[in-house]
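User: Can you predict the 3D structure for this chain?
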Amino acid sequence: MPPESTYTTDEERWNAIVTKDTDATSVFLYAVSTTNIYCRPGCRSRLPLRRNVQFYEVPPGSALCRIPGLQEMPPQQRGRQ
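Assistant: Here is the predicted structure, written as C-alpha cells:
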C-alpha cells in the first residue's frame, strides 16, 4: 500500500492515471464526465481528456466504492486501448 501522503493532489492523481499506476487503486477512483463511467487508476482504457476527469477518494478499508449517477467500467472494456 502506498504511503498516506501519496496521491493527495490532482496532479499526482492525474500522473497515476497517465502511468496506469495500480498502487493508486486503493486510494482513489476517477470519473469521466463525458461517459459517466468511473475507473481505477490502473485501468488500461484509453486516456481521457484531463478536463473531463474528476477524482474521488476511496474510503480506507472499503472493498467497493460506488459513485452515485456513474457506472463502473465493464470488465470486458478495461483492457481496450
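The chain has one domain: 10-77. The chain is about 10% helix and 20% strand.
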